[in-house]
């Protein structure tokens, strides 16, 4: 599986690079017009690359499982965000270089008097500024995720459409029919992905609802919902993966939220998600009733032990509600009768709030597992580890032979905790490629 993922990842990376550079290659292969400044060609080339990236954003944000699998959904979404910023600067460089080339282009800044092709180009740049600005400052502006996601898609669609119209109306670099066909192809890809993500895929989800069978209170203000799949179907996933949950609304509403799957991958008749009360959506989870209909889009993610079957030792480090995918891993290992050595470092703020504390003890009896609690604010007479998980605690429990190639480390928790523990793991002696993380900051 590891070799397959590496080959698939290499293939998609090469294909993506080719697709964003292909318009420039075509531009360079076309006839050269005498007297056309090189700076003009550079300006247009940068804009073409930027627009190609923007058109392909609908692919790398479309949750295509075959595309996401080699990299992991969290990495793909992080790439989506960073490459979007890069595309912004590439496109923005287009008018800047034109202004440098010839100051007469400055008159086109007046969108009301500029020619029609320039109007569309100017609007495309304005919408691009808006979509990037809202993505970067959504949380500071306290814009609800579902509201932002809805308008993010609409504004991005309008922006790419305006840019494509600008290219066709200007015509200087697509005067030949085969060049027009190239951009028509990009437009078709853009439209196809838009229809797939906004219409076809949500429609498929509406036809396969899950039914809530139980809602259970856990320690730490966490609620576990048990879901039954559509009649006649089973749930298949790898331990550690997650899904997007939609409740009280339809999949067309853009009100979905990502949650790790907590249940064992061997139990295909049900699916469990354990959700901590952290916001407006999660605080309502407890109000779900048995028999309620919800929708689950998944599974997604590469945070799974199944990707590393050759691992002889496992180090699992949950922090807070980051225990959810770890519970899926432990439950699956127990159901499989897997007796590989496991060390679990479970970090939590207080002892009373430790989620799944009782079940952890049961799993310790079923598995070849050492469990180390690290409590930030321990109770009186606490005999275990306290404070924050650091390299000193890790070295205390990890033998020297666990630091080599035969050990895989899985870390999930709040971002500050994960950043600190990743640093501690590297100080302990683990290489970066041996530490696997799950982050849910998709926007």
Automatic annotation (TrEMBL):
Pfam families for the chain: FAD_binding_8, Ferric_reduct, NAD_binding_1
GO cellular component assignments: membrane
Cofactor dependency: FAD
Primary residence: membrane
Protein name: 3-phenylpropionate/trans-cinnamate dioxygenase ferredoxin reductase subunit
Domain FAD-binding FR-type intervals: 198-306
Transmembrane segments: 6-30, 42-59, 79-101, 108-135, 150-170, 182-201
Secretion signal span: none
Keywords associated with the record: 2Fe-2S, Dioxygenase, FAD, Flavoprotein, Iron, Iron-sulfur, Membrane, Metal-binding, Oxidoreductase, Transmembrane, Transmembrane helix
Cross-referenced PANTHER family: 1,2-PHENYLACETYL-COA EPOXIDASE, SUBUNIT E, NADH OXIDOREDUCTASE HCR
InterPro entries: FAD-bd_8, FAD-bd_FR_type, Fe3_Rdtase_TM_dom, FNR_nucleotide-bd, MRET, OxRdtase_FAD/NAD-bd, Riboflavin_synthase-like_b-brl
Membrane topology term: Multi-pass membrane protein
Subcellular locations according to the entry: Membrane
Annotated organism of origin: Pelolinea submarina
Record bears the keyword Membrane: yes
Molecular function GO terms recorded: 2 iron, 2 sulfur cluster binding; dioxygenase activity; flavin adenine dinucleotide binding; metal ion binding
Record carries keyword Flavoprotein: yes
Domain of life of the organism encoding this protein: Bacteria
């Amino acid at each position: 599986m590891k070799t397959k993922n590496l080959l698939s990842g290499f293939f998609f990376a090469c294909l993506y690079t080719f697709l964003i550079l292909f318009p420039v290659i075509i531009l360079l292969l076309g006839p050269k017009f005498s007297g056309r400044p090189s700076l003009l060609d550079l300006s247009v080339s940068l804009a073409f690359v930027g627009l190609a990236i923007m058109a392909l954003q609908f692919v790398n944000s479309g949750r295509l499982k075959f595309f996401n699998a080699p990299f992991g959904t969290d990495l793909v979404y992080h790439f989506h965000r960073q490459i979007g910023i890069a595309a912004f600067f590439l496109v923005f460089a287009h008018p800047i270089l034109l202004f440098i080339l010839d100051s007469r282009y400055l008159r086109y800044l007046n969108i009301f008097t500029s020619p029609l092709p320039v109007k569309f180009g100017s609007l495309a740049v304005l919408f691009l500024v808006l979509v990037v600005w809202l993505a970067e400052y959504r949380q500071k502006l306290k814009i609800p995720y579902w509201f932002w996601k809805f308008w993010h898609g609409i504004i991005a669609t309008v922006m790419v459409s305006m840019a494509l119209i600008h290219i066709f109306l200007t015509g200087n670099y697509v005067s030949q029919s085969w060049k027009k066909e190239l951009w028509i192809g990009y437009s078709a890809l853009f439209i196809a992905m838009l229809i797939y993500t906004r219409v076809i895929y949500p429609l498929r989800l509406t036809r396969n609802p899950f039914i809530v069978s139980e809602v259970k209170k856990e320690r730490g203000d966490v609620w576990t919902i048990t879901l039954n799949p559509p009649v006649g179907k089973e749930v298949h996933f790898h331990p550690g993966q997650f899904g997007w949950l939609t409740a009280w609304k339809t999949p067309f509403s853009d009100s979905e939220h990502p949650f790790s799957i907590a249940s064992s991958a061997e139990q295909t008749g049900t699916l469990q998600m354990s959700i901590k009360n952290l916001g407006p959506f999660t605080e309502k989870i407890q109000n779900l009733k048995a028999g309620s209909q919800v929708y689950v889009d998944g599974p997604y993610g590469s945070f799974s032990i199944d990707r590393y079957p050759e691992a002889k030792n496992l180090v699992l480090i949950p922090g807070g509600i980051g225990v959810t995918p770890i519970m899926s891993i432990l439950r699956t290992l127990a159901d499989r009768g897997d007796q590989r050595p496991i060390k679990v470092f479970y970090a939590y703020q207080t002892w009373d709030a430790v989620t799944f504390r009782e079940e952890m003890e049961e799993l310790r009896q079923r598995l070849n597992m050492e469990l180390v609690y690290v409590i930030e604010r321990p109770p009186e007479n606490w005999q275990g580890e306290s404070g924050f998980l650091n390299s000193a605690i890790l070295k205390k429990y990890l033998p020297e032979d666990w630091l080599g190639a035969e050990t895989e480390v899985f870390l999930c928790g709040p971002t500050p905790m994960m950043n600190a523990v990743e640093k501690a793991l590297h100080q302990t002696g683990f290489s970066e490629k041996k530490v696997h993380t799950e982050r849910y900051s998709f926007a």
